[in-house]
């Protein structure tokens, strides 16, 4: 009988030990689960914060690229027929597309890389954001649409090619057949022989309106 009691006590002791071990494992598992949950929640919080900041940055970038379009600026026409933008134009470098309030644009936020403007003539449309950077460097941008005569286009191209700090390209959606643009200034000319072409070049190629006089017109994008 004593042996049987001893065996029963030993079995109870083993069972109790097993229960203690199980309870210990459960406590460890709970701690691990709680710890993992804390890590996951922290990761979600950090990730959410990064996402919100990223979305905010995107929103700020988008709003900055459209800042000129939302402004209250407008063209005023000077006595010599040159139109001048009435408010200060922003000069932020952005990598997204910009919605400009005028066509072609005469300034505003622009791409960090300028369009080559050392007498460069482009027979296809170029990006406004690069051309605006060229205007910031003091270039004059000659633009035309399909209503301009072939003779005028050729004559203007010849003039641009021999004039540093100028560039030329087609802009199909511009209002008039031939237009000249500098930073903050613009005018329409009637033809390549219009005397206002030379006047505009003389006044605005590296003119007083230039935000960054002497900046390069080479080693940009072509």
From TrEMBL:
Coiled coil: none annotated. The chain crosses the membrane at residues 31-52. Keywords: Membrane, Transmembrane, Transmembrane helix. InterPro entries: DUF3105. It comes from the Bacteria. The keyword Membrane applies. The keyword Electron transport does not apply. Residues 13-25 have a biased composition (Basic and acidic residues). Residues 1-25, 56-77 are annotated as: Disordered. This is DUF3105 domain-containing protein. It comes from Streptomyces neyagawaensis. The lineage of its organism: Bacteria, Bacillati, Actinomycetota, Actinomycetes, Kitasatosporales.
């Amino acid at each position: 009988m004593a042996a049987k009691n001893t065996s029963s006590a030993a079995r109870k002791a083993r069972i109790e030990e097993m229960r203690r071990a199980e309870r210990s494992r459960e406590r460890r598992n709970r701690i691990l689960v709680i710890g993992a949950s804390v890590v996951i929640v922290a990761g979600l919080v950090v990730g959410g914060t990064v996402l919100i900041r990223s979305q905010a940055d995107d929103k700020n970038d988008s709003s900055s690229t459209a800042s000129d379009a939302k402004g209250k600026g407008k063209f005023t026409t000077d006595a010599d027929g040159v139109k001048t933008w009435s408010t200060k134009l922003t000069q932020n470098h952005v990598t997204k597309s910009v919605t400009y309030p005028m066509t072609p644009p005469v300034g505003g936020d622009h791409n960090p890389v300028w369009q080559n403007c050392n007498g460069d003539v482009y027979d296809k449309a170029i990006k406004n954001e690069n051309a605006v950077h060229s205007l910031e460097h003091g270039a004059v941008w000659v633009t035309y649409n399909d209503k301009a005569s072939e003779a005028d286009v050729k004559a203007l191209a010849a003039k641009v090619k021999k004039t540093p700090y100028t560039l030329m390209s087609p802009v199909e959606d511009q209002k008039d057949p031939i237009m000249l643009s500098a930073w903050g200034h613009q005018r329409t000319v009637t033809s390549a022989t219009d005397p206002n072409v030379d006047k505009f070049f003389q006044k605005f190629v590296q003119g007083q309106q230039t935000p960054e006089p002497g900046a390069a017109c080479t080693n940009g994008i072509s």
